[in-house]
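Throughout our pipeline, every protein is held as a single compact record rather than as scattered files. Nothing more is needed to write down the fold, since each code stands for a local backbone conformation. For reference, a complete record is included directly beneath this paragraph.
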Amino acid sequence: MQEFISKYEDACAFLKRSTERPDVSQYSEKKQRRLNADHDLETILEANNMIANDGKPWEANLADTNEMKWYTWHRIIPDAGASGGFRLSFGGSICDAAGANLGARHAAKTKALSDFMGRECMDLYHDTKS
């Protein structure tokens, strides 16, 4: 079984890049949280897709409809006490040409990776939506 990465700092170390995030200070606090979460999620997924692809970079090829692309699937559950008024529940992974509203940049190479991301990065997925 492959060892995937769940932390932003570990993903940066794996990719040999700085942990410094883009400057989003000009935005509201809510939007800063969303942008930082999206940046962290993309970085973690980039590292993990590389792990799943035997150390080679991988990006979903939208022109190739035969290529398998996996997306985490979450249920949105109303929760007045939660940030944004809802919480997410990981519901599994799907393989689809259209897929989740997160778009192709959040596609995973394998179902195992998609399942891992859905379970281990739930807070980041939530923050990208709140």
